[in-house]
From TrEMBL:
This is Homoserine dehydrogenase. InterPro entries: ACT-like_dom_sf, ACT_dom, Asp/hSer_DH_NAD-bd, HDH, HDH_cat, HDH_CS, NAD(P)-bd_dom_sf. Belongs to the homoserine dehydrogenase family. The keyword Isomerase does not apply. SUPFAM superfamilies: ACT-like (SSF55021), Glyceraldehyde-3-phosphate dehydrogenase-like, C-terminal domain (SSF55347), NAD(P)-binding Rossmann-fold domains (SSF51735). It comes from the Bacteria. L-homoserine binds at residue 188. GO terms for biological process: methionine biosynthetic process; threonine biosynthetic process. It comes from Marinobacterium halophilum. The lineage of its organism: Bacteria, Pseudomonadati, Pseudomonadota, Gammaproteobacteria, Oceanospirillales. Transmembrane segments: none annotated. The keyword rRNA-binding does not apply. It catalyses: L-homoserine + NAD(+) = L-aspartate 4-semialdehyde + NADH + H(+). It is an enzyme of class 1 (oxidoreductase).
């Protein structure tokens, strides 16, 4: 049978890794795919590739790859939003299948891209867009197809997890660890995408659609970064038996879908709390299987290439399958997508860690607990740190409550004359049910 011809656009970290894995493991890969896979052309900007391109056809015009009549599969590894979108749409218009590692592209333009692909009878595969080398998309879309997924929670940004781990284990400063993560090549070109939760929200948007069969709605995701987490809060959380992780959480509720990325206290002894450094992990709760956990490298040249190449193999295997028998892009048949709303964060529910700075005076806490009581907020634990100062930090854990009630309570407590400054609030998830 004729070999399948691939064009790679972008020869940076992931592109170089993909080239190396595809060439090094060519024989083994063709035994799995049932066809030989050859790299026909590479579109790249750099004159200094990280791999040996001798004998390769290269071009600096990536659109030449997307329109090359010889090419069956275009692999988009340039990243970013607009040029990547134009490239992928051009490839689809030209009847090419597409493999991409681009989470921003899928989260923001995925609905339009999948519709175009459906009309042209081509596939768009995007395993590498979420959690690098972890086959989480395949797991949710195929392995868990029997389940009603209740919720999933993931550490899906390696840079953020690396920073939180170093801050907790070594007491290092936020900015210093971020610099190291950038030097190690984990961080996005714009590292605010990592630390403000945008990268994680891209990935969570994709996972949420796959889990619940809803269109991609990145603009409805709530994002909160880690730059305001202090070593002090990390220590207090430890004292209470919790660890602070930057989590992406999506949950099906009676009212709609929660879609949120924020720092979260989780019990110290759950597996997710022990995922450290740059590693990623996603915990999925399904009604039939219960909880399953997927762990592995979320970034890196060959780890991400592992997912890119697996997608190429998938596309090759299904080249002969008719379109109605392919795995749908968003796990559910396009005509069966649900219109369940994505909830605003005020309508989501969680428990809370609160840290407030109170004047050391009898009766102050009574005012605070009265306000919480009036809003129906149950206190789970309370610690007042000993001090010789005139003011004292008070740390509280509450039970679950709708966020709008907590917002009201915080506003009223901050207005008390004996409460100083802003209250620090971090959501808490037990990840139990
Ligand atoms: N910047 C991302 C991370 C890389 O830190 O996880 C993989 O998407």
């Amino acid at each position: 049978m004729k070999p399948v011809k691939v064009g790679i656009c972008g020869l940076g970290t992931v592109g170089g890794g993909t080239f190396n894995v595809l060439t090094r493991n060519a024989e083994e890969i063709s035994r799995r795919a049932g066809r030989h896979i050859v790299i026909e052309q590479i579109g790249m900007r750099s004159d200094n590739p990280t791999c040996d391109l001798s004998g390769m056809q290269t071009t600096t015009d990536i659109f030449e790859v997307a329109t090359n009549p010889e090419i069956d599969i275009v692999v988009e590894l340039i990243g970013g939003y607009e040029t990547a979108r134009d490239l992928v749409m051009t490839a689809i218009e030209n009847g090419k299948h597409v493999v991409t590692a681009n989470k921003a592209l899928i989260a923001v333009h995925g609905n339009e891209i999948f519709e175009a692909a459906q009309n042209k009878n081509v596939m768009v595969a995007f395993e590498a867009s979420v959690a690098g080398g972890i086959p989480i998309i395949k797991a949710i879309r195929e392995g868990l197809a029997a389940n009603q997924i209740n919720w999933l929670a993931g550490i899906i940004n390696g840079t953020g997890n690396f920073i939180m781990t170093e801050m907790r284990e070594k007491g290092r400063e936020f900015a210093d660890v971020l610099q190291e993560a950038q030097a190690l090549g984990y961080a996005e070109a714009d590292p605010t995408f990592d630390v403000e939760g945008i990268d994680a929200a891209h990935k969570l948007t994709i996972l949420s659609s796959l889990a619940f069969g809803i269109p991609l709605q990145f603009n409805k995701a709530y994002t909160e970064g880690i730059s305001r987490i202090t070593p002090q809060d990390i220590r207090y959380a430890e004292e209470l038996g919790y660890r602070v992780k930057h989590l992406g959480i999506t949950r099906r509720t009676d009212k709609g879908i929660e879609l949120r990325v924020h720092p979260t206290l989780i019990p110290k002894d759950v597996l997710l709390a022990n995922v450290n450094g740059v590693m990623n992990a996603i915990l999925v709760d399904g009604d039939a299987v219960g909880q399953t956990l997927y762990y592995g490298p979320g970034a890196g040249a060959e780890a991400t290439a592992s997912s890119v190449v697996a997608d190429i193999v998938d596309v090759v295997r299904t080249l002969t399958a008719d379109r109605d028998n392919r795995v749908p892009h968003l796990a559910f048949q396009p005509s069966a997508l649900s219109d369940a709303p994505v909830l605003p964060v005020e309508a989501t529910t969680s428990a809370y860690y609160l840290r407030l700075q109170a004047v050391e005076r009898p009766g102050v806490l009574a005012y605070v607990t009265r306000i919480l009581g009036e809003k129906g907020i149950n206190i789970e634990a309370i610690i007042q740190k000993q001090t010789t100062e005139a003011q004292v930090p008070v740390i509280m854990l509450t039970q679950r409550v709708e966020e709008r009630m907590m917002n009201e309570a915080i506003r009223e407590i901050e207005a008390l004359p004996d409460i100083l400054g802003e209250i620090v609030r971090i959501r808490v998830e037990l990840l139990a049910d």
